[in-house]
């Protein structure tokens, strides 16, 4: 079951928190999240799972920033979210996808109990100018069935910035 927009509003301040919240970003069964002005790009074109991949910060000016194809950008949402008793899900908006921009393709599931800004994996299939504060993705909420443990990992919990990938060296 997915929560309706009206149900999202009912659950604000109890099971769901979205800060800042603006009713104009509410949809029938989701809420639009905006792109923050801060981005990260990896310094190298070849990334290695066993090492720390260095990044460079970028700021999207109000006049826009040209994104290049074949380059991964990491962004974050303007909104800070908290979710209890539901599974938060993130999807790119169709209006963004129709411009050839893909958002958060591989990691749409959040965890029950997640709290923080969402780090967005962003890539484009052709050059595209983007702007800060654009409604770039939408969050929606699934009911969870059965006993569960809340997300408490320090890995991404309560993040306050863009989170690049953590190292996988311990797993390889």
Report on this model:
With 172 residues, this protein is mostly beta strands. It is built from two helices and eleven strands. Strands 1, 3, 4, 6, 8 and 9 form a six-stranded antiparallel sheet that branches. The chain is globular, with a radius of gyration of 16 Å. It starts with a helix and ends in a 29-residue tail after the last strand.
Round the Cα radius of gyration to an integer and report it: 16 Å
Largest sheet: 6 strands, antiparallel
Quote the average pLDDT. Answer: 89
Class by SSE composition: mainly beta
Q: What is the N-to-C succession of helices and strands?
A: HEEEEEEEHEEEE
C-alpha end-to-end distance: 37 Å
State the total count of DSSP E strands.
11
Give the amount of beta strand, in percent: 35-45%
- Number of helical regions: 2
Task: Assign a percent range to the helix content.
Answer: under 10%
Q: What would the keywords be for this entry?
A:
2 helices; 6% helix; six-stranded antiparallel sheet; 172 residues; mainly beta
Question: What is the secondary structure topology, with strand pairs?
Answer:
Layout: H1 5-11, E1 16-19, E2 31-34, E3 38-42, E4 55-59, E5 65-67, E6 73-83, E7 86-92, H2 94-97, E8 101-103, E9 115-124, E10 128-130, E11 135-143
Antiparallel strand pairs: 1-6, 2-11, 3-4, 3-6, 5-10, 6-9, 7-11, 8-9
């Amino acid at each position: 079951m997915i929560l309706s927009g009206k149900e999202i509003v009912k659950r604000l301040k109890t099971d769901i928190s979205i800060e800042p919240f603006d009713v104009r970003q509410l949809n029938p069964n989701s809420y639009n999240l905006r792109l923050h002005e801060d981005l990260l790009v990896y310094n190298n074109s070849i990334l290695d799972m066993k090492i720390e991949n260095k990044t460079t910060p970028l700021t999207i000016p109000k006049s826009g920033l040209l994104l290049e194809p074949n380059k991964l950008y990491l962004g974050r949402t303007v909104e800070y979210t908290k979710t209890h008793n539901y599974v938060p899900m993130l999807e790119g908006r169709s209006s963004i996808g129709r411009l050839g921009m893909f958002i958060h393709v591989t990691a749409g599931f959040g965890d029950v109990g997640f709290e923080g800004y969402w780090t967005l994996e962003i890539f484009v299939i052709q050059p595209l100018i983007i702007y800060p504060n654009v409604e770039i993705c939408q969050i929606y909420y699934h009911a969870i069935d059965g006993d569960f443990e809340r997300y408490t990992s320090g890995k991404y919990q309560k993040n306050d910035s863009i989170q690049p990938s953590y190292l996988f060296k311990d797993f390889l």
